[in-house]
Specification:
By secondary structure, the protein is α/β, with parallel strands linked by helices. The protein is 47% helix and 14% strand. α19 crosses α20.
């Protein structure tokens, strides 16, 4: 027989003479689903440690209703699916089992076809739940505050403020040079807000042709009035979520005024009947310019500026936080390895020095692109200086001069002292557990070890140790 597409799933049946025959165990075995039996519910709990995907139990286990037994299973094995087999006289016990978390129930006597259908449903549901858990973990990892990598004083203050603002609906204007991570910061704050289940809709005014901005943002008046077309405007898509206005200073002044009017009265006209629809959203905006001169000469609408900047956050350039470069190197190389599935790539000290010598006009985005390129093309598993190449701006004498200045500051300067104290305090708080400390700081264990060695940190003996 052709193996089941779900094949190699191990199934454990709690042995009960009244139901073993009806479960058609032999059929399950033929379907490439190994079946094993336990004599009791207690034995099943012990056997589940061996790694079974599905447990099949009677409606009464070790003298107790199965609904009372199931919590014991779920506490220890939350990923294991459970099918309950009951009798026509005890159908209510099957329904109660579903309430207690069972995946499905069968009424005996059953047929091989019914048994296989229930087993397949249970295994597919288990697979879907596991995939959902992985997806949620992936989304959470991509949007966690630890993705705002940095232990510099400016980044610590920024993350503290962002954590406090995230749960609110206060509008935030994020200022920072191109490539500094403004959209990432906005996405992280959205993910930690009460609107996280809504959409994060990013509008980049530098990427939309001026003649299309109004239609993309607000929809087309003629289409709304006639019902032609079904494409939602970006404002409609952001309903219940967050609207992120990137490069807001690049929006035409007419659009800025229209946006300000919308934010004062967040309603749009929808459908042939011209019904007013209220839009509820949070607004965040970003700019890489100082908006003061634009306000003065009429290129920035003062009302829109007021509405999107209840709070301002400043993202420092990479040159303003050189002590974070090594942390970012480790972070980007780990992420590259996770995305590609290739062997881990480390970096040699001379290559680190070359990266520290560069001015990084493209900020964090340029550093990430540089490392991805180097990791993809390097011949071994450790990046060397020759693997590092810069596109656009050469590492010229001015960058070498900056590097000399940086080197004179780093060994004993304020920047290193600040980072040393942060790492030392985190290690103490986590009782020198390197895994927990690295996770809390948002860096890799290798980077943490390197920092501990560099700063000559040692664990002070406690009274108990003494």
């Amino acid at each position: 027989m052709t193996p089941s597409p779900i094949g190699h799933n191990r199934i454990l049946i709690v042995d009960n003479p009244a139901i073993v025959d009806s479960l058609q165990a032999a059929t399950l075995a033929e379907e490439n689903m190994p079946v094993e039996q336990a004599e009791s519910g207690d034995e099943a709990l012990s056997r589940l440690e061996e790694g079974f995907e599905l447990l099949i139990v009677p409606d009464n286990v070790d003298g107790m209703p199965v609904a009372d037994y199931l919590p014991r299973v779920h506490r220890r094995f939350p990923k294991t699916g459970v099918i309950v087999v009951t009798t026509p006289a005890n159908v209510d016990l099957g329904a109660a089992a579903l309430e207690a978390g069972a995946t499905d129930y069968l009424v005996a006597p059953t047929t091989p076809a019914a048994t296989m259908a229930a087993v397949r449903r249970a295994l597919r549901l288990r697979q879907m739940k596991n995939e959902l858990v992985v997806l949620r973990q992936t989304v959470s990892m991509a949007n966690g505050f630890d993705n705002l990598v940095g232990l510099s004083e400016s980044m610590i203050k920024l993350k503290e403020t962002a954590r406090k603002l995230a749960p609110t609906d206060i509008s935030v204007l994020i200022c920072g040079s191109s490539g500094s991570g403004k959209e990432l910061l906005a996405r992280v704050m959205h993910h930690h807000s009460r609107r996280r289940t809504g959409a994060f809709v990013a509008v980049d005014f530098s990427a939309i042709p001026e003649e299309s901005v109004a239609r993309v943002l607000f929809g087309h008046d003629e289409e709304r009035s006639t019902g032609a077309g079904s494409t939602e405007s970006l404002l409609e898509k952001a309903d219940g979520g967050t609207l992120f206005l990137d490069n807001v200073d690049r929006a035409p002044i007419s659009i800025q005024k229209k946006l300000a009017q919308f934010l004062r009265d967040p309603t749009i006209i929808t459908g042939v009947t011209q019904v007013k629809r209220k839009i509820e959203m949070r607004v965040m905006a970003a700019t890489s310019q100082d908006l003061t001169p634009l306000l003065a000469d009429g290129r920035c609408d003062p009302e829109l500026y007021r509405l999107v900047s209840e709070m301002k956050l400043h993202l420092p350039t990479l040159s303003e936080r050189p002590e974070d470069i090594e942390l970012l190197i480790d972070y980007f190389l780990r992420r590259w390895q996770q995305e590609t599935g290739r062997d881990p790539v480390t970096i040699g000290p001379d290559a680190i020095e070359k990266l520290l010598a560069y001015r990084w006009p493209g900020n964090v985005r340029e550093l990430e692109n540089c490392l991805r390129r180097a990791a993809a093309l390097c011949r071994g598993n450790m990046l060397q200086p020759e693997d590092i190449s810069f596109f656009g701006v050469a590492a010229d004498r001015s960058s070498e001069r900056e590097h000399r200045i940086l080197r004179t500051r780093r060994p004993s300067g304020r920047l290193d002292d600040n980072q040393r104290s942060i790492i030392a305090r985190a290690l103490e708080d986590n009782d020198w557990n390197f895994t927990q400390t690295a996770q809390e700081l948002g860096i890799g264990r290798t980077t943490l070890w390197r920092k501990v060695k560099k700063y000559r940190l040692t664990k002070e003996p406690s009274e108990i140790d003494a």
